[in-house]
Amino acid sequence: YNYFIPILLLEYTNENIKKEICKNYAITTVDFENVRNLYLRIYENIIEVSPLFVSLNNIIYRNNFAEIDNLIMHRKNSIEDYKKLSKGNKIKYLNTDEIFNLIFPKFDKDIRNAIGHEDIEYDAFNQKLSFEGGEIYLIEYVYNTWTCYSLCCIIYEIILDMKFNILKTFNKNNK
Question: What's the whole-model pTM score?
Fold first, then answer.
């Protein structure tokens, strides 16, 4: 958490001020290597639990936990089809406007791929990351990672609440 403390201020600023801060200031509590793989780990965790949330959306929108919207992913009809999708296609599916998808972080596939394929360059003096598809300041990267992390915590809180309620219901029915 210490790595993220300086960027928490960005939570309370508008987009123009955020851009100015990222462009004109540096972050000294963290180096890129300290948080490099955190983005990937969050991404992997989100993909791992996503079928649960897709199933919840299916219940709300299609009255069937196993039936996915085949208009979103052509020729994919079931949660089992969703589970077989590539990680990139799962993220595309999660970018739809269904209610439970709104809590998922919006990952930058270019950054994720660059880190995953060791194809990212870090200029420590200017605190800038360069990769195919763009560049980003370290403070932006740390802020984006924090945003993804905080959403991941919310997702896991929902899962814990669901498990608790299932256990509560199970225990109530078995008395």
Answer: 0.83
Average pLDDT over residues 149-167: 90
Sheet with 128-131: list strands edge to edge: 120-123, 128-131, 134-137
Main-chain dihedrals φ then ψ at residue 39, nearest 5 degrees: -60, -45
**Alpha-carbon span 38 to 112, nearest angstrom:** 10
Residue located via tokens 């965790």: 45
Rounded to whole angstroms, the maximal C-alpha distance in the chain is 65
pLDDT at residue number 170: 85
Q: How many CB atoms lie within 10 A of CB 133?
A: 12
Beta carbons of 110 and 98 less than 8 angstroms apart: no
Look up residue 25 and give its two tokens.
């200031």
Q: What is 137-163 written as a DSSP string? A: EHHHHHHHHHHHHHHHHHHHHHHHHHH
Beta strands 134-137; 120-123: pairing state: unpaired
